[in-house]
Design a protein that fits this description.
The complex is a heterodimer of chains A (103) and B (342). Chain A is an all-beta fold. Chain A has one domain (3-102): Rieske Iron-sulfur Protein, CATH 2.102.10. Chain A has no helices and eleven strands. Chain B has one domain. Chain B contains 16 helices and no strands. The two termini of chain B are 29 Å apart. Classes of the chains: A mainly beta (103), B mainly alpha (342).
């Protein structure tokens, strides 16, 4: 069953940046982009690298290990070496707090 | 989890504040476009020298200058765009990768994926697909590397293989399978362009000879003297970039031609940092990395002295550049550690 869990304060994530958030043994990446806040799985689908040191470029996250890129809102793999999409997770902002739908 | 430790800052014990790293690594189109404009201006200026000296004995120095300006930045830009760091706009990055790889004469995606592998397994024997010479290096290896013919032969063999869809084990190891059709298409287009240039020359149109073929050949040794310094005489199979990789000091001209890649240790530690930000990165981590070796000429002169003495069976200790301990001997027989992979 889906649960909305508070992850962080919205102002903890700089504009055009992300943070890593771990919950229930799962790693998430939460982004503050020009199109708003989004969340995806936090680990690159290519070589199990955490994305939290990656660069946010517009609405794209670039993995720090091999430079593979994903579209943040859809999780779609955009350029090799990444070929498998990232899972995305719904995000809600309430009173300056970021909530993620998990489960 | 991957079953390997990639060679980078983490494996080398180098740290940098995450926010500062992201500031330094921020992407922009402007520095790349400014560089492109300066490169074009330098090509026009030195190309004009070739034009006005045609038919005189000044042609060869002019062509050497033009060839250096054509070849070294083409290599450097191709490298930077293979990383995807030259521009913020992806299409611009890929367009420049394609064009500069055409001059560098390597299929662009082969360039990208073998180089990704080189970063993941920097100077690891049997793993790094970009070890361009046997180590330890002797005089014949130096000569094969610096003339550019060894590299050209390798790149042309790769191009033909890709064009015919005959992918080697190394290609299959380092490349995502979905990229092969694009690589084959690129290789066929490149070969057609090179063939068209040859046909033009054979038909009596000599401008491609004066402005492309001969300058590219004359510029290759300068390009390769820059790239030779990156790992030569340093440690194989080390997880630390500080052991395997060399930075060196150079003049504004060297930094321009080589797109700041003289900061090579810093580049391998944080390959996501764009060329224009490498001096800032070098400053930020200067207390954690070895001192850069002396200038371009002195570093190369010392390397040349070492490889010559090694081939003559003499002492291989260099006066000042960094060397891995096993590279320094009092002479005698040389045991080969690694065979070139490109």
């Amino acid at each position: 069953m889906t649960q909305w869990i508070r992850a962080c304060a919205a102002d903890e994530i700089d504009e055009e940046d992300l943070i890593r958030w771990d919950h229930g043994g799962h790693s998430y990446a939460i982004y503050n982009t020009e199109k708003g806040f989004f969340a995806t799985d936090g680990i690159c689908t290519h070589e199990h690298q955490s994305l939290d040191e990656g660069l946010v470029i517009g609405c794209v996250i670039e993995c720090p290990l091999h430079g593979g890129r994903f579209d943040i809102p859809s999780g779609k793999a955009l350029s090799a070496p990444v070929c498998t999409d990232l899972a995305t997770h719904p995000v809600r902002i309430e009173n300056g707090e970021v909530f993620i739908a998990v489960g | 989890m991957p079953d390997y430790v990639p060679t980078n800052a983490a494996s080398s014990g180098v740290t940098l504040d995450k926010k500062l790293l992201k500031q330094i690594a921020a992407r922009s189109d402007r520095p790349g476009l400014v560089y492109l404009a300066r490169w074009a201006a330098a090509l026009i200026a030195t190309g004009a020298l070739v034009w006005v000296t045609l038919g005189t004995s000044w042609l060869w120095p002019a062509m050497f200058a033009y060839g250096t300006v054509l070849t070294v930045p083409a290599y450097a830009f191709s490298h930077e765009t293979a990383h995807g760091t030259a521009f913020r706009s992806r299409w611009l990055n890929e367009a420049v990768l394609w064009l500069t790889s055409l001059i560098y004469m390597e299929e662009p995606l082969h360039r990208r994926y073998t180089h990704t592998n080189h970063h993941t397994f920097t100077w690891h024997v049997g793993m790094d697909s970009q070890m361009p010479f046997d180590t330890p290096m002797g005089f014949s290896g130096w000569l094969a590397e610096v003339t550019g013919f060894g590299l050209l032969r390798f790149h042309m063999a790769v191009m033909v293989r890709l064009a015919f869809g005959r992918y080697s084990d190394v290609m299959r190891d380092v490349t995502p399978a979905g990229e092969f059709p694009k690589m084959t298409r690129n290789a066929r287009i490149f070969l057609l362009i090179y063939a068209a240039i040859a046909v033009l020359i054979a038909a009596g149109q000599l401008w491609p000879l004066w402005f492309l073929v001969l300058p590219r050949m004359l510029g290759a040794p300068v390009m390769l003297l820059f790239t030779l310094t990156q790992h030569v005489e340093l440690q194989e199979n080390s997880p630390s970039i500080l052991d395997s990789t060399r930075s060196f000091r150079t003049s504004w001209l060297g930094r321009f031609l080589y797109m700041n890649m003289n900061n090579h240790v810093e580049h391998h530690l944080y390959p996501q940092v764009p060329f224009h930000a490498l001096p800032t990165l070098a400053k930020a981590i200067e207390t954690q990395v070895p001192e850069p070796d002396p200038g371009f000429w002195r570093t190369n002169a010392e390397v040349f002295g070492v490889v010559l003495r090694r081939s003559l069976g003499l002492s291989t200790r260099a006066p000042s550049i960094r060397q891995a301990p096993h590279m320094i001997t009092e002479g005698g027989r040389v045991e080969r550690i690694a065979q070139r992979t490109m």
